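Annotated sample (chain length 104).
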Amino acid sequence: MELKIEPPTKECLEWGRKVAIKHGIMAEILEERDRQDDKWGEQNHSPSYWFTILMEEVGEAARAVCEWDMDSYREEMIQVAAVAMAIVECHDRNKEGASDQGTL
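Output written by the structure step:
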C-alpha cells in the first residue's frame, strides 16, 4: 500500500502563516514582560494604579499614531500588551485571600 501525501491546501497554508505571525508577536510580548520584570521586579498594584500605568502606555501609542511613527506605535502596542499581561498576572497572583474592599 502506497502512502500518498497531498500538498497542503491554501487554507492550511494561510492558517500556518497566521499562527506564525501570532507566535512571533507573543514572543515579543513575553520578551517585554521579562524586561519589565528585570527592571521593576514583581509588581502588585491596585487596579486603579494599574490602569494609570496602562493608560500611560496607551497614551504613548496614541502619540506615535498622531506623529505617524508606525515603528514606535508598534513598539508601544507591544508594551501595552505586556502591561495588560502584567495586570492579569497580578490579579491571578493576588486574588487568593483578597477581600471585597478592593485589595487587589
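Annotation: The CA atoms of residues 45 and 104 lie 7 Å apart.
Annotation: The mean pLDDT is 92.
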